[in-house]
Amino acid sequence: MMRLFIAIPLDGEMLRAALSVQREFSRRGVRGNYTPAENMHLTLAFIGEYPEPEDVLLAMDGVPFPPVALKLRGLGAFGDLWWLGLERCEALEGYVRRLRHALAEAGIPFDRKRFSPHITLVRRAELPARASVEIAVPEAGMRAERAVLMRSDRGKAGMIYTPIG
Ligand code: 2AM
Questions:
Q1: Is residue 162 domain-resident?
Q2: What is the pLDDT of residues 16-28, one digit of tens each?
Q3: Coil, helix or strand for 37?
Q4: Which of 4, 5, 159 is the pocket-test mutation for ligand 1 (most atoms within 8 Å of CB)?
Q5: Which phi and psi (to 5°) does residue 151 adopt?
Q6: Which of 59, 111, 130, 141 has its CA 20 to 30 A from that of 97?
Q7: Which whole number is the average pLDDT over 73-100?
Q8: What is the arrangement of strands in the sheet containing 31-34, beginning at the earlier edge strand?
Q9: Higher per-residue pLDDT: 59 or 165
Q10: 163 in a domain, yes or no?
Q11: Is the CB of 111 under 6 A from ligand 1?
């Protein structure tokens, strides 16, 4: 079994912007599990434990990726997990819909929660008393050319994400 998900890895200006927002969290004394630079990504579909990555690659091959322009927009939290949001992008939403449809057709299980594009910056964040996380999100974007199947393994010092295919 492998733990799998499909994502867009962050790079360039967008990655630098995400790291700079993390530094602002850190400067405010926020402790937690910060996403390392090499793990920064936007999840499109979370598959979880599945034995056949080749099946997933095949399903992905059937769905052309429309190059998309991503732009950061806003900062938010799901409980103690803090994330950066993205500007709405219909081309990306359409791709995610077709991708998930292809996974379903192929009998590949995935998390069916509504697609809510976000980049996780820090998990299990502990804010010091009176800390303010009113942090300005830099204007930053990136052009994404492809989605990548990733496997996720628990390493000694955190999660290790490895692209497949
Ligand atoms: P998160 O960033 O909001 O935690 C690898 O685990 C990636 O898949 C993470 O980006 C994680 O989202 C995302 N993901 C989506 N649904 C998930 C789920 N049900 N369980 C674990 N990770 C999930």
A1: no
A2: 999 999 999 999 9
A3: helix
A4: 5
A5: -105, 150
A6: 141
A7: 97
A8: 31-34, 118-126, 81-86, 68-78, 141-144
A9: 59
A10: no
A11: yes
pLDDT at 30: 96
Q: Tell me the CA–centroid distance for residue 24 and ligand 1, in Å.
A: 23
Distance from the alpha carbon of residue 46 to the mean position of ligand 1, in angstroms:
6
Nearest-angstrom CA–CA distance, 134 and 87: 19
Residue 93, amino acid:
E
Distance 162 CA to ligand 1 centre (A): 15
How many domains does the chain divide into? Answer: 1
Name the nearest CA neighbour of 6 among 87, 81, 60. 60
Instruction: Examine residue 124 and state whether it is found in any structural domain, yes or no.
Output: yes
Q: Is residue 165 part of a domain?
A: no
pLDDT band at 108 (very low <50, low <70, confident <90, very high): very high
Task: Provide mean pLDDT across the span 71-78.
Answer: 97
Q: What is the pLDDT of residue 131?
A: 80
Structural domain boundaries, residue 70: 2-152
Rounded Cα–Cα distance for residues 95 and 92 (Å): 5
Residue 121: pLDDT band (50, 70, 90) is very high
Mutate to test the pocket of ligand 1, among 8, 33, 35, 43 (most ligand atoms within 8 A of CB): 43
From the CA of 41, give the closest atom in ligand 1. 10
